[in-house]
Amino acid sequence: VQVEIRPASRLRGKNAVDLTAALAPVFGALSTESDDGPVTDLSRLRVVADWVQYRNNFRTPVELRPVVGGGAPELALDLRGLSGAEPDAVSTAVAAALHAHRGGGASARHLTLEEWAPIRSSLIWAFNSLYWQHLQLWEEATGQGYESALPGGQSDARHLEPVRETIGRLFAIWDSLAERRALPEELYVVELGVGNGNQASTWLDTFVEMDRAHGREYYRRLHYLMCDYSPHVLELARATVGDHAEHVSSFVLDAMRPLTSLAFLKFKVFFVYISNVYDNLPTDEIATIGQREHLVEARAHLPEPEAAAIAADLGIERPALAALVQKLLRLGPALLAEAMPQHFPDVPAAVQFWRACWQALKLQERYVPLHGLDTYEIAPGINGELLRPLLSTGGDVRMHVSNGAATSFAETLPLLHPYGTLQCHDIVVTDPHQFRSGFRGPGKYDGSVVNWVNGPLLAHIGARKGFDVSFAPFRRNGSNIITMTADVRD
Amino acid sequence: MRAMTAPGATPEALPAAAPGPARPGPPAPPPQPTRMLLPTTVIGSWSVPDWLERAKTGVHHGSVSRSQLADMHDMAVKAALKDQEVAGIDIVSDGELRRDNDVDYLLARVPGVEVRDAVKAFYFDYLHLHLPRPIPEPGPGPLGLVPDLEFTLAHTDRPVRFSMTGPFSLSRRLRCGGSAAYSERADLVRALARVLNAEARALAGAGAQLLQIDEPLLAGHPEDVGLAVEAVNIVTADVPVTWALHVCYGNRYARPLWEGHYDFLFPAVLDAAVDQLLLEFARKGDEDLQLIERHRWDRVLGVGVLDVKTADVEAIDVIEKRIERALQVVPADRILVTPDCGLRHVPADAARAKLRAMTSAAAAVRDRIQKENP
User: Fold this and answer.
1) Which of A33, A115, A166, B295 has the maximum number of C-beta atoms within 10 A of its C-beta?
2) pLDDT at B250
3) What is the pTM (predicted TM-score) of this model?
């Protein structure tokens, strides 16, 4: 048996995982002969243990992931989930997973919601979109704003010192261009993912203050473009920056397609700011197993007994539940309540159904061999060959492709003026090795999906497009947030 | 003093076709110059296929040998020439496909220049080049570009445009060892210009008819245009070919490095000893054409009519209008129809389609002119 323990940092120290206790029932179950023959060929089994950092996530503590084409299967364990579990329950889960695998797939007790597909195509992303489109309803149901779900309970973008540094740098560039008669009349700044507008407000207030001291009247020429996927979020943000209304425009925008609305700003934007957006965009995962690249495919399901409980609450048969979930994702909660008053007497009832499904939602996974990295598309015009240096760092590795972030990043860079800068605050993996030593998502943040962003991949994409991408820890103590900066190179 | 222009009754925009193959076998008789208005040409670089990018990078990581890459370069150059010929381009180039980028291929060969780390993560990155001492007086053909030219001449019967990055832009990528090398950057620029002049003499001796100086970094340093022009004149001095100067707003990674106007070029560029000035007008718009008129540029103007920073293929009638607007300030026998810059970053399909659109547009305008002036 090949055993891989990824969360090495959790094996020591005060709160160390008791690995022996966690794994004993697993190997006990593996060593047990089943009544109907050996459960699997142990010499070909890979046991991989993670520590899933998100309290709400898409994994069960024990899963068996097949490899399409007959490769060695992977028994995936969540040490966090196993730590508090009864040993007998763990043994039973392991035996059930192996049994299901031998039977050809998922437990018959799961309510499967979709066919196998790369993770970026999973309906978890439809749930994610639903959250941002109907955020107001979600917030009304939970009684708290989405910012409270962020690490530290607030957006990481409101700290003053980095803002002052950014504006100071812009002033220096603009002064220099002005001296050479090359400063455009319009000075554009773009923010993707505006949150509640506090970042924009802080930025603009600081800009006004510094511009007064600087004395060049750049504020007069400034255009601040706030962009967000959620009309509700944008509306809140617009109210927050009311004092700067004449200098602010807002766009409802898919972060993965900024050029659809902003193409007129190609090569014109001096500063693009992106906060907590990339971690929330669809991503695939790719794994090197035994020197061969595999794409991770997933399918969403509602496990028992949650599926039965949700169906019972609605008074429907369990098989009808899958269709109802699809309807929710298609219509959204308000229209769903309107369309099916017999099940949802009002909108809050539909939101309750939405939240219950989301809470229960899990992903089953499998590995599909890739026949050449260049056959895999990371983002439009960017094929999988760009991953090769990251996957070839020695040994097996499984990493996020961050397709959505890569698409957004690649499409945002052309907006930048020759002296422009892109700055991003997010949870970012800065070294491929980090994928080997810790779980990087997906997790559930409130009603949305979160994944760490593959920073080295974005750095490669940036380099190919003429940008140096650097990473630095954000300045708040205890934060996982990284400041990623892309500057024009050469 | 201006450099020597191509002889005969050829419109000024079109040099005499190159003499026949330089290798192998004896030289063929020179083809007759084409009497053609509005000849079409490329700026220099050609679309780099993905497989070639991987091979070029592979050399740095040991997965491809240098001799394998040299073979690939030969094949890629032949294909690039064929692509241009099929598209109907009148004056072709080797596509600069042997060059990793616009600087390294030349600058690393300059006598005295040291490469600090020859291994690159990605082939297109710039090398770290260092000059510890002043550049020695160059001998003949110091950059060794003659075989590249000869190979190109041997594989096309069309006139060839052969480009070299100019001394000003080369100087911007060179770290000097303090005052031990050059205390004044201007002296470095002049020294590089002397190297390029020696190379140009060798290229002329090998059959070059049309040499081009590219200054892709000049636009980012408009205050230095006087120095750049002085250096251009050192390069072109006493080299009997048609000389072209290309100044763009930058095209590295398909991005501009400067968003201004060409007003910084004038009037200084009027003193450049060149026969052709090739500028970009497609992406930026052609309001700078009035500079040509206002400053009475009296030589050939290369009019950029294809935006090389997008793979979108221009409509033929759009290109026709761009040419016609240029005709309002420069007569037809002094216009070259060109892309804005090199096509390195444009996918091959789009590059071919763009060139076909350009040659079709030039032909349509040419026909109209000839009908109106039978």
Assistant:
1) A166
2) 86
3) 0.84
